C-alpha cells in the first residue's frame, strides 16, 4: 500500500532538513559537554559548582537521548509509511 499524500520531493527535503538539524544538535551537544567539563575542572573543589556541572552534564545527555529517540521514531514511522 502506497500513501500518495506527499510528493517525494517534499519527503526528501524533510529528510535532508532533519539530517542537517541532527548534525547541528550533535555539534552543539559536543560544545556543551566540553564547556561543562571545563566548568567542572575549574570548580576548584567547590561542591556547589561540581554539583551544578554534574547536573548540567546529566541534562545535556538526557536532551541528546530525547533527540536520538525522536530521530529513531521518525525513521521507523517513515519506514512503515513507505
Give the arrangement of secondary structure elements.
Elements: H1 8-41, H2 47-81
Helix pairs in contact: 1-2
Describe this structure in words.
This protein is an all-alpha fold. It has a domain at 45-82. The protein has two helices and no strands. Helix 1 (8-41) packs antiparallel against helix 2. The radius of gyration is 19 Å and the shape is elongated. The model has no long low-confidence stretch (mean pLDDT 87).
Q: Sketch the topology as an H/E string, one letter per element.
A: HH
Count every beta strand, where a strand is a DSSP E run of 2 or more residues.
0
Helix share, percent: over 70%
Q: Termini separation (Å)?
A: 8 Å
Which stretches are low in confidence, meaning pLDDT under 50 for 5 or more residues running?
none
Quote the average pLDDT.
87
Write down the overall geometry: elongated
What's this entry about, in short?
With 82 residues, this protein is mainly α. It has helices at 8-41, 47-81.
Features:
single chain; 82 residues; mainly alpha; 2 helices; 84% helix; 0% strand
